[in-house]
Design brief:
The chain is of the alpha+beta class and 185 residues long. The protein has one domain: SSo0622-like fold, CATH 3.30.1960. The chain has five helices and nine strands, in the order ααβββαββαββββα. The strands form two sheets. The protein has a five-stranded antiparallel beta sheet with strand order 3-2-4-8-9, covered by helices on one side. The two termini are 24 Å apart.
Length: 185
């Protein structure tokens, strides 16, 4: 069953690559993991900088992306995204790397978890979902800042530029940790 599921997942990854839908910064790590007989990736994101709006309850289903970048971003691009904001709660976010890895068995999951801990990803764990043993690897450097409400932007241009610099620095650190993890996988 594991091998069949892995073949299906890798076929989907190939299609996504051909369509340009794969986050390039995480591809080296994904390829390294998928070469193993004991693991395969089911989803990955190298981290992203986001401008979004949501309803007051902040439910995930209400999120609407105004801008999304998987690399360092220019403050003017963020300002352009904020210019699309019309209502709800406006958010500026840095979301760290996340990776889901299906493991052949619990021993494989335990070994992989030890590797990611050594790589500095302490917010990681094992869970079972639909009969599959999964390891979720999650960075810890994320932040979310409410930047407006009811159509009104609350942050100054200077503060927004500070947030962009902070997010870009965190993105660099995130990519560095990804590259380090790729070396030890």
């Amino acid at each position: 069953m594991f091998e069949k599921d892995k073949d299906i997942a890798l076929s989907k990854l190939l299609i996504a690559r051909e369509k340009g839908l794969v986050d390039v910064a995480v591809l080296g790590l994904v390829d390294a993991i998928n070469k193993s007989d004991s693991y395969y990736t089911t989803s990955s994101c190298s981290g992203r900088i986001v401008v979004a709006c949501a309803d007051e309850a902040n439910k995930k289903s209400s999120f609407s992306f105004l801008g999304k970048w998987h690399e360092a971003v220019d403050a003017d691009d963020v300002k352009d995204a904020i210019g699309k904001y019309e209502g709800g709660v406006l958010w500026f976010k840095f979301e760290p790397m996340i990776l889901h890895v299906c493991c052949k068995d619990i021993d494989s999951a335990s070994r992989f978890l030890e590797i990611v801990y050594r790589g500095g990803f302490k917010r990681s764990g094992v869970y079972q979902l639909k009969g599959k043993i999964m390891v979720e690897v999650h960075g810890t450097s994320g932040f979310s800042v409410p930047a407006g409400s009811s159509g009104e932007v609350f942050v100054s241009s200077e503060y927004l530029e500070f947030l962009v610099r902070l997010a870009n620095r965190k993105m660099e650190e995130n990519v560095s940790k990804l590259k380090n993890l790729e070396k030890i996988v």
